[in-house]
Structures are given as C-alpha cells and as structure tokens.
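Hello K.,

You asked for the raw outputs rather than the summary table, so here they are, unedited. I folded two proteins back to back in the same session to keep the settings identical. This is the first:
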Amino acid sequence: MIKTLLSLRNRRNWSKPSYSQCGEDLIIKFIFDRLGNFRPSYIDVGAHHPFFLSNTALFYSLGSQGINIEPDPLFIPQFVKNRKRDINLNIGIGENTGEADFYIISDPTLNTFSKKEAENYKLEGNFHIQNVIKINIHTLPDVIAKYANGKFPDFLSIDAEGVDELIIKSIDFESNAPTVICIETISFSTSGNGLKNHELIDYILSKGYFLYADTYINSIFVKESNWLTLRS
C-alpha cells in the first residue's frame, strides 16, 4: 500500500500538464526555462478560451500574466472569471483602428475576420457561417503601448484564422519584438491536406528568428539574439 501511494505521488511529480493543441506550451516553457525566464509575459491574439486549446494557460497557472485578445464576445466573460490577473480584451487586431466584420462559424474555433476563410470552411466539412457581427479593431502596436507600457511581451501566440500574416507584419522587429512566437502555419483542412505557409515562415526567419519546433499545425520561433546569450 505504501509503495502504491509513493508511486502515485511520484507520478504526480513527473506529470506535465498541457493546455495547448499539440503540447506547444510545454515546448515553449522549456525554451523560457532555458533562458532563465520562469514567468514570461504574453500576448495571446485569438485566445479563444482561457484553458481549452490555450498556449498561455500553463504560464498563467505558473504565475505569469499577460494580455488575451478574443473578438468573440461570448468567450470574454470566461476570461474575466478565470484569468483575473490578465488583461482581457474583446477586440480584433488589424492594420488600422476601426470596425470589421467578424464571422461566427458553427465551430467557434474557426471564427475569423476573413470572409474568404469563412467561405472556404464550407468546402472542408459541415461548417457554416452562423452570424456576422461588428467588432472593434485595434493595431497591435497600439495595444502594446496602452496595456504593456510599450514593451512587447516575452511570448506572442497567434491563432487568428486568416489574418495571422497581417498581424505578424505589423510588428516592428527592429526595436520591439517578442522572444518567442507561436503561430499557426498551416491552412485548415479536415482531410489532412493543409498547406504550410512557407512565405510566413520565411518572413519570420528573415526577422532574426530561428524555427525551434514545428508541431505541423503550429510553428515555434525563438529570437536568435536571445538564444545566443546561452552560449556567452
């Protein structure tokens, strides 16, 4: 009996909980641990849910705090309730401040600002547009200036269904950029025929990052200058 209890206790000690789709949060935690940053700040664009398929929930559970950006107003109360240390914003991210159509899809993980993306979902399975609502749009630099004292958080997670590239290209990589980026780099497909966005991957690589890991759905990039400090 004692051996059994000890065994169970050891299993709990060895376990590594993950909230991400494919364990991305554990990979990212390993990166930040190696860098000596045990409570990285974050900005989660297209956060969706405080825990389900979340790349930032693990860090919140370990004491970190950051900014969650979720355009769907139905999900924001859950963030307010469960992520009280975070700043939770019911907005979208775009090139300019204003308003944009937000397409509510029958599977809410696919909600998007892209009309083209919303219409393509019909070709991939039993998905349809349930509603189109107007959502306030802000630029990423404006959000960082207002809610992060002008300093880009350590970790950027993006799952913005069709507008990821637009968001990435709004970053001033020369003067204010994250240490780690996790971004969806494959097109949605229910048949396993999704296409990797090599143009987006190459763009991030050209901005001083290297591809640390790829889970097929998401790519994880690390800023080279930060990683090189481990060798000095």
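The second followed immediately with the same parameters:
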Amino acid sequence: MRRRIMGRYGYLILLIIIILAVDLYPFFDALRLSFFDKNLMNPGGDRFTGVSNFVRLLTKEPLFRPALWNTIVFTIGSVVFEYLIGLGAALLLTSRYTPMKNLFKALVLLPWAVPIAINSLIWKFMLAPNYGFVNQILDRLGAHDFLQMNWLGNLSLVMPVVIGVNVWRSFPFYAITLMAGLATIPRELYESAQVDGASWSARFWHITMPGIKNVSMVVVVLHLIWTFTNFDVIYLLTGGGPLHATEVLPTFLYQQAFELFDMGYASAIGLFILIFLVVTVGPLYFRANAKT
C-alpha cells in the first residue's frame, strides 16, 4: 500500500517539499524577521519590536518616498516603451513586406540573449564621458558639446537613460510574445476587412489589437511585477545614484540588508514591496490569468 501511495503521489509530495523549501519557508522567515530588530553586526542581539520597522519605513525614512516614486516611474516608463517598441517590432517581423525576416528576428533577440549583467556593464562603458561610444558618435556627428556628457551622472537625464537601457534589453520579450499572439489571428479577417475597404488603422484597431488583447495583458502584468522588483540593471548602472536619483526599492532593500546588515528593516521593505504589488498589480494578474 505504501509503495502504491508513493508511486501515485510521489511527485506531488516532492513538489510540496520543493514549494515549502523554496517559497514558503523564506517568505515566513522574512515575515518573522520584519517584526524583529536583527542586525548581523550584532549576533544574538535579536529583539522583538513589533511593527516598529514598518513605522520607521513609512513615517521616518527620508529615502522611502523618493525610492517608491523612482520605482513607479522606472516601472511604468519601462513597461510602456517596451510594449510600444515590442509591438512595432512584432508587426514588422510578421508583415509580408518585411525582407530577411529571419535575420531580423535573430537580431531582435540579441539584447534578450545577452545576460543582464553584461548588458548593463556594456551600456555603462558606452555611456561613459570622453571615451564612451555614445559620446564619441555624437562628437563625430558634430555635437561636440556632448563629448563631456556624463549620462549616468546627470540628475535630470539619468532616469530616462536607465529606463532606455532597460527597454533596450527587455523589448525582445514583448516582440516574440506578441508575434505569437499575432500568429493566432486568422488571416481571413484582414482579407475580408481589406475587401470591405477598411484602412490600415481600422484593421489595426479593430482586428489586431482585440486579437492580441489577452496576450498583451499577460505580458504587461508580468513585466510590471518583474520591473518593479528589478534590481540588477539599476544597481550595475548607477548603484541608485547620483544622489539617490535612481534609488528604487530593490536597491534600497539591498543597501539595508547587505551593506548595513539590518535584516529586520530589509525584511520589512521586502514585505512592503510584496503588499504593494498584491494590492496594485494583483487584480490585474488574476484578471489576465482568468482570460487565458
């Protein structure tokens, strides 16, 4: 009987063990730590403090609101432009009039294929003042004033630049996903609409967009979550600077946990990120999954 049960439910039991080990235990441990004053520089000095970490974060932390605002700006800016560029690339790569589509598909995938760390470091080198590739190209084109431009050190330009780097890296995911959605739209709909005299814009708004509505919602919701919790792009490009101009909640959490070793406070920040995403993006996520 035991062999029969293990043979039938063995994989289910293994899955439950993996979920407990990988998901639930770290979550509940972080939840527990968020109610404690725990600093790795003071081993054995753990002290239960209730909700004081959350009170400190929401009312006393001067970097909290700027970091939250930067996170929202970074997330919305990235997702909007990723979707628009990805949709444009998908339309071009599925058009019958685009030559060498296989070659362009491979080229579009390159930014997504390169690891994030390498992507970010390459862009950091390219955006460097004086010797950076971007400034050198602008200088050759006659824009000599840009030769000394410090793109990642300018308070008014650094966030758009970081968003641009993230968009360049992530739009291929949108392009490939939306291409799959476009492939499910029957070609007969376009032919019938063209026979009826519908313009390109009419076909786009009344056939293409409704046809990819569900896949668009799924990919946008997923990227809202991924971008809101994105750490590596900003950390490798700017480290949250200059003067916290690109400080986002994930980099702020990293600073508290692994530079100041305040694990209780860092756990409270992580729990806030989770709650914020559940409240704001959670309904969209469940709605998107209900339609697929």
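The beta strands are 36-37, 47-48.

Happy to rerun anything if the numbers look odd on your end.

Regards,
P.
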